[in-house]
Amino acid sequence: MARRRGRGRAPEEFSLSFLDVICCGFGAIILLLMITKTAEPQIIEASTINLEGTAADLQQQVFQIRGETKILNRDLNAKQEQLSDYEQRIAILRGQMARVKSRYDSLQVERSRNSAISGQLAVAKQTLTEEMERLLGLRYQSKNRLIGGIPVDSEWIIFVIDTSPSMQEYWDRVLKEVKNTLEIYPSVKGFQVLNGEGQYLYQSDRGKWINDSPSRRREALKRLKTWTPRDTSSIQQGIKVAIDTFGRGDKKISIYVFGDDFTGGSTEALVRYIERSNKTDRRGKQVVRIHAIGFPTDRVNNPDGFANLMRQLSSRNGGAFVGLK
User: Fold this and answer.
1) I need a surface site. Which of 78, 175, 267, 317 has the fewest CB within 10 A?
2) Which residue ranges make up each domain of the chain?
3) Protein fold of 136-323
């Protein structure tokens, strides 16, 4: 009987302890729920405040960007207006340049006409009449004589002839002008013929004078008829060779340059080189005179280049420039 009672009480003690545990668990859960409910509004409120601050910052940045955009648009409009002013000024300057160029072309045409007239006068004065020969006498010398404004007091003559394709079109006229020039000088001590690249008519007489005589003149003119060495119209090399090779001592030398174009680069550089190379004699006069004859410029790239160069060289080296039409 005692053992049975003992077995009946044991379950009652176990049941009371289990209820206590369950109650404590429920109490803990309720406490956690109360804590969670209390903290949640604070977190939400803090998040709301942060988002409002961020939104305010972003809105301020938007306002700032809009302000900067207005400033940039204003600057852009100002630059566009300034660009329009520049374009208008450029258009005005182009118009002025066109008028100046047109006037310059007119002056060049007039200058060419004057040069042609001067050339015709020179040719007209290059023949002495019988009356002039009678008055001057048989012993008349060409010393200090001027024909057509060209001094013909030289004793040595050098021809520097542009043999480029454009000059070959006028080759008969070139031969005629060479002949006319030689006739100005009834007798000289020597002559030489080069092309614009510095090549000699006679390679055997390279660096030497050709003795003057009627037969040698005829022979040189005959050889010139078929002389077509390569030439790029640079002309400067031929002039340099003529002065550097023959412009020594006290010889009175005249260089006659025949051409229609100049492709040799800097005009000023060549003019300075010739001034340094053209020595003076004991009396302080330049040894070499430089004359030039300009041929028609219908088929050349730089029609004014040759004329401008030869005017400077002839005026600075005691010579004259004649333009043919």
Assistant:
1) 78
2) 55-125, 136-323
3) Rossmann fold (3.40.50)
